[in-house]
Amino acid sequence: MNLEEIKITTKSENIMEFLTENRQQGIIQLSGVYLNSDNVSIAYTCLPGAHPKTKKYFIAIWQGEQPEDISAAIKTYKITDDSSSGSFTWSELGLQSKDYIIGLGVDSSVDTSICATLTIPKGVEDGASLEASLSSLDTLSVSSNSIVGSYVTPIFNLPATNNNWIALFNNSFNANCFKGTGVIASTKAKSDNNTGDITLNGLSLASKKPYTIVYGISFNKDSKPNFDNITAYYNFTTK
Q1: What distance in Å separates the CA atoms of residue 65 and residue 141, rounded to the nearest whole number?
Q2: For the chain, which residues make up each domain, given as ranges?
Q3: Cα angle 146-148-150, degrees, rounded to a multiple of 5
Q4: Nearest alpha carbon to residue 36 among 104, 126, 119
Q5: DSSP letter string, 62-117
Q6: Is residue 182 predicted with pLDDT exceeding 70?
Q7: Do 16-26+135-238 and 28-134 come out as alike in CATH topology?
Q8: What is the DSSP letter of 34?
Q9: What is the pLDDT of residue 8?
Q10: 28-134, what's its fold?
Q11: In what order do the strands lie in the sheet with 128-129?
C-alpha cells in the first residue's frame, strides 16, 4: 500500500459524512404594506422563545437605502410585549418621494443588530406590499468532525466586522438556546460578505442524534457570542 492509499484509508476510518433528516429552518419574519405616505403597516414573527420585549427588539425606519444608527431613524418602534408575533401601523410618517428602509433589530443597544429589512422604493404605489430581506441559515455539509453552515443576511451587513457567528447545540432549537444551554461549539464569521459559508471544525458528532446550528449577530462584553441575539436556526438529525 502506498502513502496515498494510507492517507485515504485513514480519512475514511476517522471521518464520516452524515446524511441528515428532520430538517427545519427557523427565521425571523418581517412584512409590511405601504398604505400611503403617512401610514405603513408592519407585521413580525420572532423565533420561538425569543421574548422580544425583554431582549429589546425594535423596528425602525430610515430615509435612504440602508439602515443607519438607531438615533438617526425617522421613527423607532420598541416591541412592547414578549409574544412571538405582532403587528402595528405607523402613522403621521410624512414620507416623501424618496427611498426608505425599515429594519428589525434584536438589540436596541446595538446599531448593527438589524437582521431583517423592508424597502420602500421611490414612487411606490399606495397599498403595495414591501420587499423583504431576511436572515437565514442552512447546512452545506455535515460530517462527524465538521459542519459547513450557509448564511444569508441583509445586503448592508458586514458579518466579520459586526461580530456575527454560528454555534452548534445539542438537540433541536428551543428557548434555552438563548441562554447558551447545550452549546457544543461556536466560531466567528471571517468574511464581510453578507452571504457565505462558515465552518465549525473539531467536532465529534454522533449518528442518529438531533442538533441545531444558530446564527448570531453580536458578541457580549466578554467578546463571546451573545446568545440573546440569535437571528436564525437550522435543525437536523444525523442518520
Answers
A1: 34
A2: 16-26+135-238, 28-134
A3: 160
A4: 126
A5: EESSS---GGG-SEEEE--S--SEEEEEE------SS-EEEEEES-TT-TT-EEEE
A6: yes
A7: yes
A8: E
A9: 27
A10: Immunoglobulin-like (2.60.40)
A11: 85-90, 40-45, 29-34, 128-129
Mean pLDDT of the chain: 92
What is the average per-residue pLDDT within 193-211?
Answer: 96
* Local structure of 220: helix, strand or coil: coil
Q: Please state the pTM of the whole predicted model.
A: 0.90
Q: Which residue has the cell 480519512?
A: 11
Give the pLDDT confidence of 1-47 residue by residue, as tens digits. Answer: 333 332 322 333 456 788 899 999 999 999 999 999 999 999 999 99
3-class DSSP state of 117: strand
Q: How far is CA 225 from CA 153, 161, 180, 217, 219, in A?
A: 17, 14, 9, 8, 5
Cell numbers standing for residue 209:
442524534
Contact 96, 82 (CB under 8 A): no
The length of the chain, given as a count of residues:
239
| C-alpha cell recorded at residue 234 | 437550522
CATH topology (fold) of 16-26+135-238? Immunoglobulin-like (2.60.40)
